Amino acid sequence: MPNHKSAEKRDRQNARRSAVNTANRTRLRGQVKKLRVALTSSKGDEAKAMHSETIALIDKAVQKRILHRNAAARYKSRLTRHVNKVTAK
What we know:
By secondary structure, this protein is mostly helical. It has a single domain, classed as CATH 1.20.58.110. The protein contains three helices and no strands.
């Protein structure tokens, strides 16, 4: 337990921030999973629509420092490659 008022406040801030980060990370992972499911079921139109939403979420996660920019670039590259492969068929 914190012994000072400032430490108590910092504890509250950390808890709030952690909850926000967890929610954003969960939203991102869920969106990526939905896109991957659409890709495996070969629904090209649906995957193409979900792709732009997913890319936007990835970019927002980078801005909020939830995801490292290199990891985000890797995710975007791989997902884009898979979407292009499915839509080309």
